[in-house]
Specification:
Helix content is about 50%, strand content about 20%. It has about 180 residues and is an alpha+beta fold. The strands form two sheets. It has a five-stranded mixed beta sheet with strand order 1-2-5-4-3.
Length: about 180
Amino acid sequence: MNEPWEILRKVVAAFQVLQIDYMIVGSTAMRAYVPGRSTFDTDVLVRMTEAQLAQLSDELGDDWLLEWEPALQALKSGRMFNAIHYGTSWKLDLIPLKDSEFHKAEFRRRQLAQIGQIACYVQSVEDLVVSKLHWAKLGGSKRQIEDVRGLLRSGLELDREYIRKWSVDLGLDTLLAEADSG
């Protein structure tokens, strides 16, 4: 058994049972499109209520560290919080949906896809490109640019006009040109 993927399967099942709107993003989402790089966590954009957070804590159970008060305060203020699986130290980063036009658009465009044998909602490949450019801008990470370069050269059918539009709107067009030319 590939333990992290079995854990992800259980997390996705919990989201479904609790009717939590979610979308896997970042390096884990990349695996729905191209072979991904190793990662020790999974980033998930969520739209949930405080009641759903309490239910998620119960659903995950004693196998997880999910500190209730810090998670609740983070959810209320729109900040990321996490849950850590005790047996593997695998980390689930939960990111509340932000009220920006881009984040709302990317959430509407989420797609049901396969990561390994797990059917789950992931961000579209175009939104993955834009968000990785955003993270590269914030952190100066060459790894994010390499991920974008890999996606642009993957042979996947991409809506390049959509990528260009958001890259310009978010001030990422220089990074897009760098990734596209390198």
